[in-house]
Specification:
Blueprint (H helix, E strand, L loop, with lengths): L1 H9 L4 H19 L2 H13 L4 E4 L10 E4 L5 E2 L13 E7 L7 H14 E12 L1 H8 L8 H12 L6 H10 L9 H10 L4 E5 L18 H7 E7 L2
Parallel strand pairs: 1-2, 1-4, 2-3, 4-5
Antiparallel strand pairs: 5-7, 6-7
Helix pairs in contact: 5-7, 6-7
Length: 237
């Protein structure tokens, strides 16, 4: 039941309706996992590990050993459009999969600065988000991971709709999941460096130089992120 509600909240053709649903469900989660409950949860978590790891925009997905947070689910209520409730330089790692693009460009840039603030020196932020060149390659039927026909069938099954043109496929791939800003590598790198990150590296989905950041992506079958997504890791100096 909960997963079905979350799916409806995250996928809708009406942006205003999506915003209203998310915010109303978020208020419920704030009552359940905000304020006093959040403070106690953070105290317990930070006392339990030497390398705190934040999984933001987690929804119903959980990563073992991580603090799993979301507006509408997770261990604590977390509104990514507000100041993060963590002390400066308090986190070793942070990870968000398919969440940064659901924020406006301005809010996304502000979140990157907040994540830089709460990561300790040497801390690493991993972001996975739809990649504009990969989506264009699907539209042009030039994606090396999936053919346009196979992707169209996948999208039909995911949405319950019939997509008859590449244009419909491209638009629904972005629109139905509430994406507000679609990044490419250059744009993402520019924004992360502006936020203060010293090193930005593109990586493959599920792969990393850091043990803690391998195999994290939970967005459908592994081929989906390989076909659609940009993954980067940004290190704080």
């Amino acid at each position: 039941m909960a997963d079905g509600v979350l799916t409806r909240l995250k996928r809708t053709e009406h942006p205003a309706g999506r915003h209203l649903l998310l915010r109303s469900r978020g208020l419920v989660h704030q009552v359940q996992r905000g304020h006093l409950v959040r403070r106690r949860t953070l105290e317990r978590y930070f006392s339990s590990t030497a390398d705190p790891k934040l999984h933001f925009g987690a929804g119903p997905k959980r990563l073992d050993g991580w603090l799993n947070c979301d507006l509408i689910g997770g261990d604590i209520h977390l509104d990514l459009e507000r100041e993060l409730p963590f002390a400066d330089e308090s986190l070793a790692y942070a990870f968000g999969e398919h969440v940064i693009g659901s924020l406006s460009e301005r809010a996304g840039a502000a979140l990157m600065k907040e994540l830089h603030r709460v990561l300790r020196p040497g801390g690493v932020l991993r972001l996975t988000t739809p990649d504009l060149p990969k989506l264009i390659a699907i539209y042009r039927d030039e994606n090396p991971v999936v053919s346009r026909d196979d992707y169209t069938r996948f999208l039909d099954e995911e949405t319950g709709k019939r997509h008859e043109t590449p244009c419909q496929v491209f638009n629904d791939t972005v629109r139905l999941w509430g994406i507000r800003h679609t990044y490419d590598e250059a744009d993402m790198t520019l924004k992360l460096r502006a936020a203060g990150f010293a090193e930005v590296e593109r990586v493959e989905p599920a792969e990393s130089r850091h043990d803690a950041l391998r195999g994290l992506e939970l967005h459908g079958e592994p081929w989906v992120n390989r076909a659609e997504a940009l993954c980067v890791e940004a290190t704080r100096r």
